Amino acid sequence: MNTEILGIIVSFVMMLVIGIPLGKYLAKMFAGEKVWTDFMRPLETGIYKLSGIDPNQPMNWKQFLKAMMCINLLWLVYGFFVLMNQDKLPWNPDGNPGMTADLAFNTIISFVVNCNLQHYSGESGASYLVQHYIFMFLQFVSAATGIACAVAFFKAFRDKTTTDLGNFWNYFTKAITRLLLPLSIVVSLILTFNGTPASYAAKDQFISLQGDTVNVSRGPAAQFIAIKHLGTNGGGWFGANSAHPLENPNYLTNITEIVSQMIIPIAMVLCFGYFIRRKKLGWVIFGVMMIGALLLLIPSISTETAGNPLIAKMGIAQPTGAMEGKEVRIGPTATAFWSTLTTIVSTGSVNGMHDSTMALSGLWQLLGMMINGFFGGCGVGVLNYFIYLIIAVFISGLMVGRTPEFLGHKVEAREVKIAALITLLSPFLIMAGTAIAAYVFTTHGNADWAVKPSAWLNNPSFHGFSEMLYEMTSANANNGSGFEGLGDNNIFWNVSTGIIMLLGRFLPIIGPVAIAGLLAQKRYIPESAGTLKTDTVTFGLMTFAVILVLNALSYFPALALGPLAEHFSMIK
Amino acid sequence: MNSNILKAIRITLTLTVLLCVVYPLLVAGIGKLSKGKGDGETIIANGKVVGYANIGQSFTKPQYFWGRPSAVGYNAAGSAGSNKGPSNPDYLQQVSDRIDTLLKYHPYLKRADIPAEMVTASGSGLDPDISPEAAKIQIKRVADIRKLDEQKVVELVTSHTEKPLLGLFGPAKVNVLKLNVALDELK
Question: Where does the chain cross the membrane (chain B) (predicted)?
């Protein structure tokens, strides 16, 4: 068999081999049972002591969300000022300038919300201080925030009736000390020993073999790239992200990076089942997500390996597939594999440029981000999926004429209203955002911004529309990848995607945690013959159907105008 | 809320020390044991650093093996791809022009011999590698200009072909800089 296919098969198997046991471990660890990482306890006690935190203080859903919002707000304000003044602060060996207010606004939101949409370029736009003390710091804590919120949501269904969702600071700290930090050390060492820079050396200069003078950006990148993937953040140290040969030096690092961005999302789904002592529910959800992931993966790989039909017409060979925007050491198969996974799990790192992938691959990438619930980001993936679950419970309850119930709690008007609002939020933000962008592009082409709207698009026609649609979708999904041809560092894109990222992060966290909090307070109804079982294959398929119908209805028109129209224009 | 703010400030400071000082220093320290000491692995020819093993560089002279087209002219302080969409007419014209240039310098080639990567820009603009096929099509040109025995250059390319990981996973490749350095050393 072809070595490129074998390469992705081994990556896929490794995700499961690591992700599945990790899920069991997380369930035990967050439940406070004995686990092998208990040797970290003194470190945690130290952190609690220095921060004045009592990790055992119970919190109800409102207190939990307040603590979460409070610290996120702090990071937003503090980071914003550091970004604007990075030129005046120390540890800026390459002399990069401070960010403009709109760029700083966009960038700080982007890192706080685990999105990492980058409207700057790492080499020339961020000092080492900002890269480590703001970006890398936020990559850890934003992932830990997502995980902590998911665990609170799990806790609501562990007990029959409760108001206690656990302690935010406790889950948050343990997500770092027991999961993200140890794994980051391992991954960053693998990267370092394969050629990624890890030292603090600044830019270097050399004379090439042919006699050209070349400057090389370097820096402590390996540490950053490890958490960028483990925390499903995706923001690159270098502008070209994981396509950059220092950020992803060989095939082994490519496997390491793709596996490390998948293991926590996979583990969190199974953790849900184990944590609430309903193993089967976890596996059913895992199954639905896996089917969804494969349905996006397989066509994407086949599209990319087939190559560009318009280049095929020129009579040259595309033995491995379409190569524009891709790297030889990685190859089209592994790039297509990565492009789908990075869009479904909301990492948004890239090992090849999405803007240059085939029209249909763009469609699969967009769909992955629109659905945003097939594994999804660290912690938040499960929360997104839960909203679909509630809608599925409600619809099937109506279909069979029973009161909708989820895990022994009646789902009533208030919960369904929250779920419906969250479901409507994504299409609203994406469609309204893209519509406004298209309007500005067509009618205010000469607006006096850093990049004039008429110069926004790197590609004409349908593909240009896709560039705008992709940017809004990526912002809403907190994904962070882009069709990077878009001229996005100007006030319009910085402000609009900034606001969309904020809403697209916090409302889909607050909604599910609130629903879970409300449900957990209700009287527990023991299972009877009349109960709608949610841990069956039938119900799994029902949820899958709900996901399909909701997303098809919401997004088909926009997808038809962008990637589908481009595809049909290419094969005519 | 007030107590939350204080806790938030204090834990932010504490974690900054752990995550932004201790963790990166630990990795940088252990990284000193790696091949490039964590600074990036360099390639030395005639006692001088001529580049980084992982960073592609521009080769335009006919006596060297060429790498892939780059959207940023191999600027290692500003990596990027072309971000051209697959149906963009200007882009397709550019690819067509690159094919013509290649055919001009390699008159012995048929169009079907040209692998796509030699006429398409890489994702980073710094791709250090080409496929073994892309190296093979250039052998005759390089050998003719350097007045070398073609068989010798074939052997050089073969010895510089890196197999897939463990012989099983991923593509085979040739590092263009390492190949050209070896070529210069060939007598």
Answer: none
Q: Amino acid letter at A396?
A: S
Task: Give the CA radius of gyration of chain A.
Answer: 23
Whether B186 has a pLDDT exceeding 90, the answer reads: no
What does the pLDDT read at residue A531? 82
Separation CA B46–CA A433 (nearest Å) = 57
Candidates A12, A16, A15, A30; CA nearest to A379 is A30
d(CA A409, CA A249) in angstroms, rounded, equals 51
Which residues in chain B touch residue A304, judged by CB atoms under 8 angstroms apart? none
Average pLDDT over residues B118-146: 95
- A401 — pLDDT class (breaks 50, 70, 90): confident
Q: The domain containing residue A40 runs over which residues?
A: 3-571
Query: What ipTM does this complex have?
Result: 0.94
User: Given this model, what pLDDT does residue A76 score?
Assistant: 96
Helices (H) and strands (E) in chain B, counts: 7, 5
Residues forming a β-bridge with B52 = B42
Q: Decide: A280 and A392 in contact? Cβ < 8 Å.
A: no
Residue B11 has its nearest CB partner, among A51, A320, A356, at A51
Strand partners, A410: A405
Nearest to B121 among A3, A314, A324 (CB): A324
Residue A460 has pLDDT above 60, yes or no: yes
Q: What share of chain B is helix, strand, coil (3-state, %, to 5)?
A: 45, 10, 45
Q: Identify from B2, B87, B111, B173 which residue to disrupt to test chain A contact, counting A C-beta atoms within 10 A and taking the largest count.
A: B87
Q: Which residue has the higher pLDDT, B153 or B38?
A: B153
Using DSSP, state whether A317 is helix, strand or coil.
Answer: strand
State residue A78's pLDDT score: 93
Which residues of chain A make contact with B119, given a CB cutoff of 8 A? 311, 316
Nearest to A190, CA basis, from A122, A255, A137, A276: A255
User: Is there a contact between B57 and A214 if contact means CB atoms under 8 Å apart?
Assistant: yes
Which residues of chain B are within 8 Å of residue A461 when distances are taken between CB atoms?
Answer: 87
Kindly determine whether residue B88 and residue A185, on different chains, have CB atoms separated by under 8 Å.
Answer: no
Residues A203 and A218 sit within 8 Å (Cβ to Cβ): yes
CA angle A22, A151, A513 (to 5 degrees): 145
For residues A316 and B116, the answer to whether their CB atoms sit within 8 Å is yes
What is the rounded (10 degree) CA torsion for A259, A261, A263, A268? -170
A336 touches chain B (CB under 8 A): no
Q: What is the largest CA-CA distance in chain A?
A: 80
Stretch 48-87 of chain B: residues touching chain A, C-beta under 8 Å: 48-61, 64, 68, 74-87
Determine what percent of chain A is predicted with pLDDT higher than 90: 89
Q: Which residues on chain B are in Cβ contact (under 8 Å) with A569?
A: 87
Domain count, chain A: 1
Task: Give residue limits of the domains in chain B.
Answer: 1-39, 41-185
Interface check for A238 against chain B (CB to CB < 8 A): the answer is yes
Tokens of B75: 């600027």
Q: What are residue A85's phi and psi, to 5 degrees? A: -115, 20
Whether B11 sits inside 8 A of A316 (CB atoms) is no
Assess contact for A475 and A501: CB atoms under 8 A: yes
CA distance linking residue A12 with residue A336, whole number of Å: 13
Rg (CA), chain B: 22
A200-213, pLDDT tens digit by residue? 988 899 999 998 99
